[in-house]
Amino acid sequence: MLTEDQRTMLTKLAGSRTASVREVERAKVLLGYANGRRSVT
Fold this sequence. Notes:
Layout: H1 4-14, H2 21-34
Helix pairs in contact: 1-2
């Protein structure tokens, strides 16, 4: 379960063009799990 602040931070990070690829991918995976997805493509 994510707080609204965590979800906002991860959403910004997932769309970032300046963060490292690893951070962006990790944010996408975490958002996917929070949304009930087993895998993110």
